Amino acid sequence: MNEEYIGKETTIDFGRDLRMSQPWRSYPSDEVFTIVKKTKGGLYLLRDCKGNEHPLPKYRIHYFKK
Question: What are the residues whose beta carbons fall under 8 Å from the beta carbon of 3, sequence distance 6 or more?
Fold first, then answer.
């Protein structure tokens, strides 16, 4: 299993409807998140600077677009 992304910092793609949903409204576009783990459902758990964790699909995470 390739887990080199664990602990890496990234920004996310707020495009389309993500900006309109909670909890994403409160984050600035340049907010930096830390990738915590991949969930069994295929989402990635991201942690913000306050320690809050949120699941997000891979296509929304800029780290994977490098």
Answer: 38
pLDDT tens per residue, the chain (66 residues)? Answer: 468 999 999 999 998 889 888 889 999 999 999 999 999 999 999 999 999 999 999 999 999 987
Q: Helix (H) and strand (E) counts for the chain?
A: 0, 4
Identify which of 38, 28, 54 has the alpha carbon closest to the alpha carbon of residue 46.
Answer: 54
Instruction: Give the rounded distance of the alpha carbon of 34 from its chain centre.
Output: 7
The pair of structure tokens assigned to 26 is 């409160």
Q: Is the peptide bond before 55 cis (omega within 30 degrees of 0)?
A: no
